[in-house]
Design a protein that fits this description.
The N terminus is likely disordered. This protein has one domain. 25% of the residues lie in helices and 30% in strands. It has a 5-stranded mixed β-sheet. It is α+β, with helices and mostly antiparallel strands and 187 residues long. The protein has 7 helices and 5 strands. The protein is elongated and about 85 Å long.
Length: 187
C-alpha cells in the first residue's frame, strides 16, 4: 500500500448522502491521517509521520429494493489503512492493518435501539443533514481499531521487573504450589 501523502485527494466536507445514493454515485480517494485528529491522537507516530500515512477510502451510494418496504437508499463505506498503534505487551509501535466496510441504511430520524436494530448487520444513519465525509471515515476507522493492539510476536524480549526472576514453570507461580509444599513438609 502506497503511503505517499502526495496522493491524498480532496474529501467532500458537505455531502447530501440521500441525493448521493439516489444518483448511485461513487467516490474514492485517500486522506492523510493528520487530517483525522481523533484518530491521530490514538496512534504511535509523530506529526511528520501522520502527514505521510494515508487512509484509502471509497463511498458508494445505491438504491435497493426491500421486500414489503419499497426502495431504500444506502451507502457503503470502505476504509483501508495500516496504522501504527502501541503494542500493549511491549509498548513499541505495532502496525495494524485496517480493512473495514460498513453499509449505512439512510433514514430520516434516529431509530430506537431495539433488539432488531442492534442485531442488524447494517447501521441506520440519519441523513437529514449533509455530512463531512472525512468525519464519517474517521468514525469508521476508530470503530475498526483493535481494542488491545499487540504484535503476534513482539520484536524484542519483554523486560522483567527489577528484582523479579522469570518463573520457569506455571506450578511455581501458583499460590497453591506453596501450600502443597507446606503440606508435604516433614515436621
Amino acid at each position: 500500500m502506497d503511503t505517499s501523502a502526495s496522493q491524498a485527494t480532496q474529501v467532500p466536507r458537505r455531502l447530501n448522502l440521500r441525493e448521493f445514493a439516489q444518483r448511485e454515485r461513487t467516490l474514492e480517494g485517500s486522506i492523510a491521517v493528520s487530517e483525522l485528529p481523533r484518530l491521530a491522537s490514538s496512534l504511535h507516530a509523530d506529526a511528520s509521520r501522520l502527514r505521510e500515512l494515508l487512509v484509502h477510502w471509497s463511498l458508494q451510494g445505491m438504491l435497493r429494493e426491500q421486500p414489503g418496504a419499497g426502495v431504500e437508499a444506502v451507502v457503503r463505506l470502505h476504509v483501508r489503512a495500516q496504522l501504527p498503534m502501541t503494542c500493549q505487551r511491549c509498548l513499541q509501535a505495532s502496525p495494524q492493518q485496517i480493512d473495514d466496510e460498513v453499509v449505512l441504511r439512510l433514514v430520516d430520524d434516529e431509530p430506537e435501539l431495539d433488539p432488531e436494530e442492534l442485531e442488524s448487520d447494517e447501521e441506520a444513519f440519519c441523513a437529514r443533514h449533509p455530512v463531512d465525509v472525512a468525519e464519517l471515515i474517521e468514525d469508521q476507522l476508530i470503530l475498526a481499531l483493535p481494542l488491545v493492539p499487540m504484535h503476534e510476536v513482539c520484536p524484542q524480549p519483554l523486560p522483567t521487573p527489577a528484582g523479579s526472576e522469570a518463573v520457569p514453570d506455571a506450578r511455581a507461580a501458583s499460590p497453591f504450589a506453596a501450600l502443597a509444599a507446606l503440606r508435604h513438609k516433614p515436621n
